[in-house]
Amino acid sequence: MSSQAAATELDVLIVGAGISGIGAAHYLQREHPRRTYAILESRGALGGTWDLFRYPGIRSDSDLHTFGYEFKPWRDKDAIADGDKILAYLRETAEERGIDRHIRFHTKVISADWSAERARWTVVVERADTGERSTLTCSWLFCAAGYYRYDEGFTPHFAGREDFRGRIVHPQHWPADLDYTGKRVVVIGSGATAVTVVPAMAATAEHVTMLQRTPSYVMPVPAGDKIAERLKKVLGDRRGHALARRKNILKQAAVWRFCQRFPKTARKLIRLANVKVLPDGYPVDEHFSPPYDPWDQRLCAAPNGDLFRAIRRGHASVVTDRIDTYTETGLRLASGRELPADVVVTATGLNVQAMGAITLSVDGRPVDLADTVAYKGMMLSGVPNFSYAIGYTNSSWTLKVGLLCEHLCRLLARMDEGGYDTACPEVADPGMPLRPLLDFQAGYVRRAVDRLPRQGDRAPWLTSMQYTKDVKLLRKLPVDDPELRLSRSPAHAAAATKAGV
What we know:
CATH class of the largest domain: Alpha Beta
Helix content: 25-40%
Low-confidence stretches: none
Organism: Streptomyces coryli
Number of domains: 2
Structural class: alpha/beta
CATH superfamily of the largest domain: FAD/NAD(P)-binding domain
CATH architecture of the largest domain: 3-Layer(bba) Sandwich
Family: Belongs to the FAD-binding monooxygenase family.
Cofactor: FAD
Keywords: FAD, Flavoprotein, Monooxygenase, NADP, Oxidoreductase
Pfam families: FMO-like, NAD_binding_8
Largest sheet: 9 strands, mixed
CATH topology of the largest domain: FAD/NAD(P)-binding domain
Distance between the termini: 37 Å
Shape: globular
């Protein structure tokens, strides 16, 4: 650990050493090399999701030319990449830029209290391995801890669980000793995790059944990107990566806009793609026709059609039904059908956890996140010198994170220029209509919506999910905003007066 990373008083504290935290550190040290910072990571390794998840087939569901960093070219031939490759990419990024030397592992943030007098956060941290608590201070707190609990996945209650004689596992806590070779497996769920796990397990299991209550949209997509590979071959890694990234940003935006404007046509096109890769006569409408429109929830990707290939070969199947109860040998469904199983995988989702479960307060007054409004999708009303990283739900997560990190660096520069040490968003219109932070229908979001911040109906209180709009707002427009109050703390003003400034 460097002397800077061992300090107790820093300029910036970044919470989380995943893809967002590592990206934030890069932008910060590039744009503000004199600012001191540390990354606080509760686990014992960097990588966040990509180090935590170990289930079979773990991979991205976005292409790595956009899911990866703008500043570091993705060089692997697989655009939809597995978890090991993504983790190696993150480790390489942190090592190349010396970011790894700023990480404090096994350090969990418990609480943070803002002092208006000193313009500093007092942050209580706990050693995850010993339980010992200590205090750090910083002038800016950046939460890059993601949006879900790392220690607990979501598993709904099903009757009879204790009667089942097989093994039940959640993908978020995959046991290293699980051997499913030649066994009957039931995967409960129909989201991105289930769509990933089923074909991966089907390669060695006797049979894998994806049991879903409601179908999801699943699109077969190429695992590689031939155009990107040609661009990199002709133009070199850096320029080729930049053009491939731009191409894929435009492609993602076009697909999303098309689905929003023409949902019926989009539904028909997805159905045609499914029919093409499934066996003749397969009941597509029963198992792959959701009751909602495309992109009301995130579309699932099947690289090279792996899920459909497993179904076609008879190694996997889909059942759409409700669970009545576990039995000793499997699951009994609402229809009365019995599904035999040796292993049940509960790919039933995440538990949303806002702001890393940090208890925030301002001058001793607790902050209730549900009472705050998101400013530019990166700060909270009434909470000074605090920002967070939540990426896009309708395209690559990292596209949004990169833009808001750039904007934060611009804001810090503006504060330096004006001699300010405090930045606090304040809603000018108390009657502004509010709505949920994430207009997204996924179950894990709906379960937590009442505990999350809100968003408004106008800029800068809208949380945009469109990259082109965010480029304008976060990269091109001035930092100064009537609803962002920049000020000098009493301590700062007194010091300036004493110095004759």
